[in-house]
Design a protein that fits this description.
Elements lengths: L13 H15 L31 E11 L3 E9 L5 H14 L3 E12 L2 E4 L2 H13 L1 H8 L7 E10 L2 E9 L6 H17 L5 E5 L12 H6 L2 E10 L1 H8 L3 H18 L8 H11 L7 H4 L3 E6 L5 E10 L11 H10 L7 H24 L3 H7 L6
Parallel strand pairs: 1-3
Antiparallel strand pairs: 1-2, 3-6, 3-8, 4-6, 4-7, 5-6, 8-10, 9-10
Helix pairs in contact: 2-7, 2-12, 4-5, 9-12
Family: Belongs to the HMG-CoA reductase family.
GO molecular function, one term: hydroxymethylglutaryl-CoA reductase (NADPH) activity
Keywords: NADP, Oxidoreductase
């Protein structure tokens, strides 16, 4: 096969994209007419993609309006969702109608941290322990070194985890409105290079990353200690409203929740929710997030109860929601438009966006659970063409 052509001086042009499509067409016979139809300027893409040839067009719809009573997100929002799954936008819209008529969703971001976790390997466990104490004693100096590389990243604390003669340091940063993975990698490396220069007794080896920060994968440490934003969405639904809109009752929803909890436990699932990933993925694609972060962002926790008044309290917690409103793909034209719809683009928007994502997840959980209990799940897919023959 031919090598894909590249232009070292200016690789992000319509002409270079067309040359690469022509090579792929010649080698595979595949027509790339729709891939090659786009409105964005390729000159905006350095840092976002290599070997640019065109775009993958994903249908986009708006769900809502959704009423949010957050610390940062307040008011009604149309939520952009990019998906090819029929019924998805309709289902989330139904949950949004229910929660809107109930007075809205309360949202809170209760923690914020992004990590890199280097590992230091010593001649024995005693040397590793001594190093750990040195890190505690010299935290302020380590913090100052780490923050030399960034204007917005702040080192909050360093957790320590030990096994055998190894010691992992989990550096926790706040990162402003960026997701921060690259920011914290650079800052942590800079701090570690300074630490190594101090002379560490008994040190045999060092690695900047050894899978403890569990980037783009679920882990219990991230669920317990947060990666990205830890966001909670909660609502109390009047019983009559549940009957009128969802055709079920708080008692039946609560019973289904217990079945779902047991099913998740039996299956060894990392999440007791129904489909956090659906809403998160659709919003991530629409709003220029790193979609691979769905791996950790979708592992969430659902809790519910029937109140003494017979109403239904429901909460969704996302412990590792990795989002950004600045940098990465957020500034690309269509993604920026979607963030603008939410009033979240740019500096100062990330906590607002996190609250809107959490509220959206809650609406999807309520809608799907209600459809299952009311036996409307399969029929809704049929009605919206999901199960076309």
């Amino acid at each position: 096969m031919q090598k894909l052509p590249r232009n070292k001086s200016n690789d992000y042009t319509p002409e270079m994209a067309a040359e690469r499509r022509a090579v792929v067409n010649a080698e595979t016979g595949a027509e790339l007419t729709h891939v090659g139809s786009y409105s964005i300027d390729p000159g905006l893409l350095p840092g976002n993609i290599e070997n640019f040839v065109g775009v993958a067009q994903v249908p986009l719809g708006f769900a809502g309006p959704m009423l949010v009573n957050g610390e940062h997100a307040q008011g009604e929002f149309y939520v952009p969702m990019a998906t090819s799954e029929g019924t998805l936008v309709a289902s989330y819209s139904r949950g949004m109608r229910l929660t809107r008529e109930a007075g809205g969703i309360k949202t809170t971001v209760i923690d914020d941290a992004m990590q890199r976790a280097p590992v230091f390997i010593f001649e024995d466990a005693r040397a590793a322990l001594k190093f750990g104490r040195w890190v505690e004693d010299n935290f302020e100096a380590i913090k100052a070194k780490a923050e030399e590389t960034t204007s917005s990243g702040k080192l909050r604390n360093i957790e320590q985890y030990a096994a055998a003669k190894m010691r992992w340091l989990r550096f926790n940063f706040t990162c402003g409105d960026a997701a921060g993975q690259n920011m914290v990698s650079k800052a942590t490396r800079h701090a570690c290079m300074w630490m190594l220069d101090q002379g560490i007794p008994g040190l045999e080896n060092f690695s900047l990353a050894a899978n403890f920060d569990t980037d783009k994968k679920h882990s219990f440490v991230n669920s317990l200690h947060t990666r990205g934003k830890r966001a909670v969405a909660e609502v109390t639904l009047p019983g009559e409203l549940v009957k009128d809109i969802m055709h079920t009752t708080p008692q039946d929803l609560f019973r289904q929740r217990q079945y779902s909890n047991m099913g998740a436990l039996m299956a060894g699932s990392v999440c007791n929710g129904a489909h956090f990933a659906n809403g998160i993925t659709a919003m991530f694609i629409a709003c220029g997030q790193d979609v691979a972060n769905v791996a950790e962002s979708s592992a969430g926790i659902v809790y519910s109860e029937v109140t003494e008044q017979g109403d239904y309290y429901f909460a969704a917690t996302i412990p590792s929601l990795v989002v950004a409103t600045y940098g990465g793909g957020t500034g690309l034209p269509t993604q920026r438009e979607c963030l603008d719809v939410l009033g979240c683009y740019g500096k100062g928007g990330v906590h607002k966006f996190a609250e809107i994502v959490a509220a959206t997840v809650l609406c999807g959980e309520l809608s799907l659970a209600s459809a299952i209990v009311a036996d409307e799940w399969v029929s809704s897919h049929d009605a919206y063409g999901r199960n076309r023959p």
